[in-house]
Amino acid sequence: MSDQTPALELTGIEMHYGYVLALSxxxxxxxxxxxxxxxxxNGAGKSTLLKVMxxxxxxxxxTIKVRGQKVEFHSPSDSTAAGIQMVYQDLALVDPQDxxxxxxxxxxxxxxxxxxxxxxxxxxxxxxxxxxxLDRLGVRTAPMTRPVEMLSxxxxxxxxxxxxxxxxxxxxxxxxLLDEPTAALGYEQTKQVEALIRRMAGQxxxxxxxxxxxxxxxxxxxxVVILNRGSKVxxxxxxxxxxxxxxxxxxxxxPSQFAA
Amino acid sequence: xxxxxxxTAPAATPATPAAEVAVPTGSExxxxxxxxxxxxxxxxxxxxxxxxxxxxFWCAPYFATLDNALLVANAAAITAIFAAGVGFGVMTGVLxxxxxxxxxxxxxxxxxxxxxxxxxxLALLAGFLAGALVGLVNGMIALRGFNPIIVTIGTLSVLxxxxxxxxxxxxxxxxxxxxxxxxxxxxxxxxxxxxxxxLFLVGTVFLTRTRDGIRLMAVGGNAEAVRxxxxxxxxxxxLGFVISGLCAALGGLVTTAITTEATPAASPAIIFNALTAxxxxxxxxxxxxGSLPRVLVGALILATIANGLTIRGVEPYWALVxxxxxxxxxxxxxxxxxxxxxxxxxxTANLSVHxxxx
Lengths: 260, 358
Prior knowledge:
The complex is a heterodimer of chains A (260) and B (358).
Chain A: E1 8-17, E2 20-30, E3 35-40, H1 46-53, E4 61-66, E5 69-71, H2 76-81, E6 84-87, H3 99-104, H4 114-117, H5 123-137, H6 153-168, E7 175-179, H7 187-202, E8 206-210, H8 214-220, E9 223-228, E10 231-237, H9 243-251
Parallel strand pairs in A: 3-8, 3-9, 6-7, 7-8
Antiparallel strand pairs in A: 1-2, 1-4, 4-5, 9-10
Helix pairs in contact in A: 6-7
Chain B: H1 15-20, H2 31-58, H3 66-91, H4 99-115, H5 120-143, H6 148-166, E1 185-186, E2 189-190, H7 191-209, H8 211-221, H9 223-228, H10 233-259, H11 268-280, H12 292-311, H13 317-348
Antiparallel strand pairs in B: 1-2
């Protein structure tokens, strides 16, 4: 696995908030087509690390590489341009608008000819494109014209994930950052989002999954990275790892793999 | 999977059951839900129709005539223009209370320019620019994180003051050059009716068919979602204020044209009438939803009720009572529909992330 260039690689990330060291010397990478679970207790630094990856925070030290290219994120739009998309817990969908508008906003298709010059959109073409994109992800939600407010929680989550996934799955597959994607979902819907995550990975999207939900990790993640009080304490392939060990790393009961 | 089976084979191939496995797709909207949504979205048109029918009988033979229809349309025009301003604002997520001030400012500026010998077109242009400018300022202030309601109350006060300063405490009477957009009739139809028709047509097409209009509505619905899609949602919020200000200027100028007098009095009744029409149209003040045609019908309903009751010789106060009752009833209806829609969706909802069925 280590012979390929990681889709996203962070080296020696340090993050200070005033005197507080939120992250210290974090190395992290995720390969194309890989699902990496990012685990840790509250305050372990998961969210901070995620914000570094999404460009919301600038690290105090350390380097970020996207597909081997060193980059610097000054704002979330920089990371977006580099092919990294974040799905937040609060979904941020436009409730009164339909699925098609939600998937297409910011990348609308204009009509051809003079109407297009006036800024008229081609709703039909946008619907068609979105349908094709969802098919490619293997997602079937409600009809494209259904307002998002009339969707179930799982469907809304699916639309939110798909909106980001579509934007990273161009000619080069990007990185998808998921923050507790199943926190608000019931059992059945969780299963279906799990299936979606695996399918996206199968298409070569690199996925970082932040969660408290260990069963979810075992279900979808190839590898987990565990943070404890701002440091990386474990980075291990999940298959064959004892859940008790994972919990031990999360709580700090188990010594770090990288203890110096 | 269509294997070369003998055509005589009666049994369905084993391929078909796979395709027929009932996978819950959640894609069928229950019919009752569609019906309820239809009532929510189109109910106001039905209500207007009912009111017209009732008055047609009750106020026969004076109500249901072409002349009276034009009278109603003309009476609704001013309210409709301001309601368009409020509606644009509310749908895009801003409640602009400075509209009467903007209207007074724009019309006094125009009146001042005209009485000082400037050509009419220039004076009108200045009035519209003033409206857009006020919207821009409102928007810039509101973007700093201040509550738009308070900001626009502040600008309302400032603007009506400035208008009074321009008019030096008086009014600008005798602006008969504006008659072409005030009392004049074209093909028997008063000018304000054309203006309103054009305004709502352009506005509706803009909001539902163009990229910027759709984004504007989306910003009203969830600015954060739009921002995360890489769009400068702030620009669209300012645009909402600017359009609102332009509508206010238009309303002020049409009022001036009808009365041939520019007055600095910024009547709060303007904003309350407009808000009533908007609320009657079911445009949620939380933003992101609603439609301009419904706002227009809201304004028309107000005018229709006032007109019908006047014909019957009912004291005009009753028009206020009826309007208020309708407004409250529409709120109740909205709530009932909302909850029964979500109940029904709850009972049938299911997620359908599954392999596409081929």
